Amino acid sequence: MATSDKVNLADKLGLLDRPYTPGIVGYMNDYKLVVVRAKGEFVWHKHDDTDDFFLVLRGRLTIQLRDRDVELGEGELFVVPRGVEHCPKADTEAHVLLIEPRGTVNTGDAGGELTADEAEI
Amino acid sequence: MATSDKVNLADKLGLLDRPYTPGIVGYMNDYKLVVVRAKGEFVWHKHDDTDDFFLVLRGRLTIQLRDRDVELGEGELFVVPRGVEHCPKADTEAHVLLIEPRGTVNTGDAGGELTADEAEI
């Protein structure tokens, strides 16, 4: 990945072949820029050491928190504070930009079968 | 600003009354999430201590580098590496999401009349 290239997010999302498999499209300092196709329910988890940035690029994404749902449409972002349990859910497919420190595990403290390696696309 | 609220970027951009006046819409860890309306040419500058994240939400933005131009359309992002001189330019208005460490000065090392205080909107 040439760090000097621009990134077309829709093009990158077209390279992902299944939901909830994140693809790293770039870096900013010690953060990774990640796109993901969300469809269905992810897994309840939290990140004790970092906030978690979500920006919906297409579709609609629900970020379930223990006390409420945050409903995001296109062009809406939400930052899940560190330590707060959350579970993304999309009834129809949503395209999402995530920003997290490098090394952050997508399933946080939960682990399980949806845990993905860090992969550049 | 309630950190627990979602942010509609278009709504926030509607609160800005002139180009190149940045508005902080949220935070992620020690980073600020900023929207700005770009129109015309900004100022040549660099940030020696941080990369600089640009995502075009609407319109087109040219990030001039000393050796080339990076042309960004909607849904395209570019990270200017730390220490690299750049000068954003928009022939017609563009709406942009910026992400930078808190305390980063918008005009970097250049200063001048376009230097803006950090203001939440």
Structure in words:
The structure is a homodimer of 121-residue chains. By secondary structure, the first copy, chain A, is mainly β. The first copy, chain A, has one helix and eight strands; from the N terminus they run E-H-E-E-E-E-E-E-E. Helices cover 4% and strands 46% of the residues of chain A. In chain A, strands 2, 3, 4, 5, 6, 7 and 8 form a seven-stranded antiparallel sheet that branches. Chains A and B meet through strand 1, strand 2, strand 4, strand 6 and strand 7 of A and strand 1, strand 2, strand 4, strand 6 and strand 7 of B.
Structure, briefly:
Two copies of one chain form a homodimer. By secondary structure, chain A is mainly beta.
Give the overall silhouette of chain A. Answer: globular
Main beta-sheet strand count, sense and barrel state of chain A: 7 strands, antiparallel
Task: Briefly note the structural class of the backbone of chain A.
Answer: mainly beta
| Percentage of residues in DSSP E strands of chain A | over 45%
Most extensive chain contact?
A: A-B, 34 and 34 residues
Low-confidence stretches of chain A: none
Number of helices, where a helix is a run of at least 4 consecutive DSSP H or I residues of chain A: 1
Q: Indicate the multimeric state.
A: homodimer
Q: What distance lies between the first and last C-alpha atoms of chain A, to the nearest angstrom?
A: 8 Å
Q: How many strand units of chain A?
A: 8
- Please give the share of residues in helix of chain A: under 10%
Radius of gyration of chain A: 13 Å
- Arithmetic mean of pLDDT of chain A: 94
The topology string of helices and strands of chain A comes to EHEEEEEEE
